[in-house]
Amino acid sequence: MKWPRSRSDNSSDRPGRLPPPALLDRLYPRVLGFAYQVLGDAELAAQSAETIFVRRDPPQNEVAVWTAAIATMRSYVARGFVVRPLVPQTQSWQTDLLRRLAQLEPLERALLLLRYHEDLELEDLAQVLGISEDELRKQVALARGKLLDLPNV
């Protein structure tokens, strides 16, 4: 995947270094999907993924990518740039799960997606969120419980 160094021709606006190509190739599509599920808008997701990877000091490892992704999602949520993600109209357990996820708060979705879809280890996820593993376990349990208690829509 080719990725622009910057939108600007001004060399002072370009990042000092790029993420390793293998990291970019492996994580960009995953970050884009994650951002869409959290923010609910394809254009915002693309913009946030670009923000994560094209910056003065882009992330150089997987934990740094997800840390930047969470910081970016928090920023978008704080500014109110969130809509409910579209859910396919088919009937399946995956569709039911997507519908339930869409009913959660954006950062609850983010937590569950990183833990279960991206399969981040508790230690790494706690580092990404900047909380202790004990606090993370509590937050995961609360978000899972809320997800399971939601009505089938």
Structure characteristics:
153 residues, mainly alpha, Butyryl-CoA Dehydrogenase, subunit A, domain 3, globular, disordered N terminus
How is this fold's topology laid out?
Elements: H1 21-39, H2 42-53, H3 62-78, H4 93-103, H5 106-117, H6 122-129, H7 133-149
Helix pairs in contact: 1-2, 1-3, 1-5, 2-3, 3-5, 3-6, 5-7, 6-7
Describe this structure in words.
This protein has 153 residues and is mostly helical. The protein has one domain: PhyR, sigma-like (SL) domain (Butyryl-CoA Dehydrogenase, subunit A, domain 3). Helices cover 63% and strands 0% of the residues. Helix 1 runs antiparallel to helix 2, helix 1 packs across helix 5 and helix 5 crosses helix 7. The chain starts with 20 loop residues before the first helix and ends with a helix. 24% of the residues are buried. The N terminus is likely disordered.
The domain tally reads 1
Instruction: Give the radius of gyration.
Output: 16 Å
Main sheet characteristics = none
CATH superfamily membership, which one?
Answer: PhyR, sigma-like (SL) domain
CATH topology: Butyryl-CoA Dehydrogenase, subunit A, domain 3
Structure class: mainly alpha
The rounded distance between the terminal residues' Cα atoms is 38 Å
Percentage of helical residues?
55-70%
- Number of strand segments: 0
User: Helix segment count?
Assistant: 7
Shape: globular
- Uncertain runs: 1-15
* Nearest-integer average pLDDT: 83
CATH structural architecture: Up-down Bundle
The CATH class name reads Mainly Alpha
Oligomer: single chain
